[in-house]
Amino acid sequence: MPQAAAAADGQLGGAEGWRSELAVAVAFLAGALAALLLLFFAAHELQGMVQSGPYEHLRGDIWNCVDFVSIIAQGLTLFLLVVDYRRAGGGVSVHGDFQASSTCASIALPPAWFSLLYFMLGFEGSGMLARMVIEITRGVRDFVIILAVVVIGFALSFYVLFQAGSMQHDPMTVGDVDVEDEVFGYRNPLAALVSGFALMLGDFDRDEFSASANESLMNVLFVVFQVFVTIIMLNLLIAIMGDIFDKVSPEP
């Protein structure tokens, strides 16, 4: 029986080792293919930059910008993937050994998939929708700048109130709210910007306002924020998008 168990363990270990080696081989093959495709597209972009100049090449077409960012991010991802693999040595763990390349890949994936919209332009159904997405993105550029200024201003205002309130309240005695930290999502300016964006989308809890330095002022600022951003600005955005839709949609 011990010999049979040892033999079974040996077979299981051999199968796992074979599968691991196969996975590594497939990964290297996929990486080599990705590198070849990346070199092809990089050469194409480089040729365009040489012919018309880098600035004119990128400014003339939004797809050139998307491809440029995608190529740079993907190239850096492949480089970091090799670095992470060499650093990991024998025992490779996706969770522990590929943090840098995974982070870079998360940046490379959105522009890579967004570039597929370019190929959708050739189809009748998806082409009109893709053009509409592009034109709306261009058309709301100035609106986004104004909206960002407003959201940043209010978010930093909330940040100041919550930071000042954290010095006055015990976080475990702020109403009936289960408080993990006394400033909720406003522990630093960057977190405050994210919380301000979430507030614009309706993600808020008014019970948290009691943790601020001045709950009454917090309520007033909240009402002003909701009226100006949610009612005025977002309805303005709908009007702008409707106007762009009328321009992009084909004549009946």
From TrEMBL:
The chain crosses the membrane at residues 22-41, 62-83, 103-123, 143-164, 216-242. Its main location: membrane. Residues 36-248 form the Ion transport domain. It holds the Pfam family Ion_trans. One of its GO terms (biological process) is calcium ion import across plasma membrane. The keyword Plastid does not apply. One of its GO terms (molecular function) is monoatomic ion channel activity. It is found in: Membrane. GO terms for cellular component: plasma membrane. It is a multi-pass membrane protein. The keyword Nucleotide-binding does not apply. This is Ion transport domain-containing protein. The lineage of its organism: Eukaryota, Sar, Stramenopiles, Ochrophyta, Pinguiophyceae.
